[in-house]
Amino acid sequence: MLRYLSTRVSQLILVLFAVSILVFIFTSVMGNPVYLMVRENATEAEIQAAIEYLGLDKPLPVQYGIFIKNALKGDFGKSYIYHQPALGLIMERFPATLELVFIAMLLSALIGIPLGVLSGAYPNKISSKAIMTLSIAGISLPSFWIGMVMIFFFSLTLGILPVSGRGDIGTILGLQTSLATTNGLRHLVLPSLTLALANIATIIRLTRAGMQENIRQDYVKFARAKGVSSRKVLFGHALKNTLIPVVTIFGLQLGSLIAFTTITETIFAWPGMGKLLIDAINSADRPIVAAYVLFVAVMFVFINFIVDILYTFIDPRIDLK
Amino acid sequence: MFKKTTILFLIVVLIVSLLSGCGGNTNTANSGNESSENGSDNTPKEVIVGLAGDAYSLDPYPLNETITNAINNHLYDSLVAPDANLQPEPALAETWEISDDAKVWTFNLRKNVKFHNGNDFTADDVIYSFDRSKEEMSAFKYCLSTVESYEKVDDYTVKVVCKEPNALLLAHLKDLMILDKETCEDQNDEWIALNPNGTGRYKFVEHVRGDKIVFERNNDFWGELPDVEKVTFKPITNEGTRTANMVSGSVDFIADVPVRDIHMLESKDNIQIVSQPSLRVIYLNLAGWTDTPSKDANMPLKSPDGSNPFKNIKVREAMYRAINEDEIVEKIMNGYATPAATYIPDGFNGHNPNIKRLDYDPELAEKLLDEAGYPRQDDGYRFEVTLDAPNDRYINDGEIATAVAGYFEKVGIKVNLNLMSRTIFFKYISASNREGDNTHLCMTGWADSGGESALMGLDLVYSMSQDGYIKEGYGGVNRGYYQNPEVDKLVDKAISTADPSERDKIMQEVWKLAADDISYIPLHFQQDIYAHSKDIKYHPRKDNYIHAWDMEFVK
Question: Which residues form the Solute-binding protein family domain (chain B) (predicted)?
Answer without folding.
Answer: 87-450
